[in-house]
Amino acid sequence: MLTKDQIAQRIAQEIEDGFYVNLGIGIPTLVANHVPKDISVAFHSENGLLGMGPFPTKGHEDADLINAGKQTVSTLPGASFFDSATSFGMIRGQHIDLTVLGAMQVAENGDIANWKIPGKLVKGMGGAMDLVASAKRIVVAMMHTNRNGESKLLDRCSLPLTGVRCIQKVVTNLGVFKITKEGFLMTEIAPGVTIEEVKQATVGKLEISSKLKEITIINY
Amino acid sequence: MVIKKVNNVIEALQGVKPGMTFMFGGFGLCGIPENAIEELVHLRISDLTCISNNAGVDDFGLGLLLKSRQIKKMIASYVGENAEFERQMLSGELNVELTPQGSLAEKCRAAKVGIPAFFTPTGYGTEIAEGKEVREFNGKPHILENAYQADFSFIKAWKGDEAGNVIFKATARNFNLPMCGAAKINVVEVEELVPIGSLDPNQIQVPGVFVQRIFQGTSYKKPIEQLTLSES
């Protein structure tokens, strides 16, 4: 079974040389730590920054320089600033190559729910609906089940939707799943996990790839 | 050159009335019009509709206008950092219209540039799309979103000149740029107001034509919401 950091490590393998990448809050944020050193990647923060760098060192923090999680950040050489309308133009216009975000539920048809639980306080969707509606390639990073042990890979989302038929791939602590016409196609399985365990933890339609392999975690 | 300079925040806010719709620039507490918010609290005008990506925190930003119960309706994309906001929303005192962040930005930009409405894929198939026209373009369904109509926009910039030309700093550009020019009266407060001719025209991010009033702001606090540091 993968740890959250290992989920991030596996997703980092999806990043190709020259990619512009938007990382959501939570597990997706960890992906930045695992990008291979030999490729060039620019991280996009939807509040108006391309070329986002690490957190600043003490004394270099700037109230005018934050990421979408309102954290102080730095810029890398070649970075650029822009306004929110331009930023979402980059997303809607499919100029961002890869979006990684968390989810509460994903359905076998690619629907995603990640912004609202009825009866609980709603904080808002932020940029999530824009990202899922338009991004070229969307990978979901999440645990396979919720805190109550219930599957998050479902036949249909029971929570209010963030977007419809938009997710292509899900990486969980149990495996890697492609969304296909036949539902969740498991292409990779986490070390120490059995197919039976994945079946038990998945409510949506699950197919096992004939080329199923074990997830390899490479430390860069 | 047309002069947009006014002497202070009091002059800049002349004409604000109860029941009006205001836009506030900023993302979180980054780039918010601190002086305008403080003056609105002082003026005690209420029943306001506020368009802003976020709603401030309990003791700063739009949180101050919430605390004094001046806001009737809040249009925002994310409102997570404000306990008073939560209380007023749950008790029904406050009407909240959650809007996807990119659509919120574009509804401002559209208002600024004379586009009454636009189609966007964002929110299709979700509760955001309820009651909105759906049309397919290139095989993909889109929903119709209307441009905002606001009486005033309150913008915070880094530098500006007396002709209303404006430059923002770093990620404080955010919603300040698309909102600046999107309301009937656009009010800009700056950290540094300079005479005409002092700014390089190549560097101007919002031309003064989009600005009605500009003033030298004072006493900026610029709090950091989430201080995150790397080990050196």
Could you please describe the fold and organization of this structure?
The complex is a heterodimer of chains A (220) and B (232). In chain A, the strands form 2 sheets. Chain A has a 10-stranded mixed beta sheet with strand order 4-3-2-1-5-8-10-11-12-13, with helices on both faces. The mean pLDDT of chain A is 95. Chain A has a single domain, classed as Glutaconate Coenzyme A-transferase. Chain A is of the alpha/beta class and 220 residues long. Chain A contains 5 helices and 13 strands. Chain A starts with a helix and ends in a 6-residue tail after the last strand. The radius of gyration of chain A is 17 Å and the shape is globular. In chain A, strand 11 and strand 12 form a beta hairpin. In chain B, 20% of the residues lie in helices and 27% in strands. In chain B, 51% of the residues are buried. Chain B contains 6 helices and 11 strands. Chain B is α/β, with parallel strands linked by helices and 232 residues long. In chain B, strands 1, 2, 3, 4, 8, 9, 10 and 11 form an 8-stranded mixed beta sheet that branches. In chain B, strand 3, helix 4 and strand 4 form a beta-alpha-beta unit. The model of chain B has no long low-confidence stretch (mean pLDDT 96). Classes of the chains: A alpha/beta (220), B alpha/beta (232).
Radius of gyration of chain B: 18 Å
| SS elements, strand count of chain B | 11
Largest beta-sheet details of chain B: 8 strands, mixed
SSE order of chain B, one letter for each helix or strand: HEHEHEHEHEEEEEHEE
Number of domains of chain A: 1
Helix/strand structural class of chain A:
alpha/beta
Distance between the termini of chain B: 48 Å
| Number of helical elements of chain B | 6
The CATH architecture name of chain A reads: 3-Layer(aba) Sandwich
Low-confidence parts of chain A? none
Corresponding CATH superfamily of chain A: Glutaconate Coenzyme A-transferase
Helix content of chain A: 10-25%
Mean pLDDT of chain B: 96
CATH class of chain A: Alpha Beta
Approximate shape of chain B: globular
Sum up the overall morphology of chain A in one term: globular
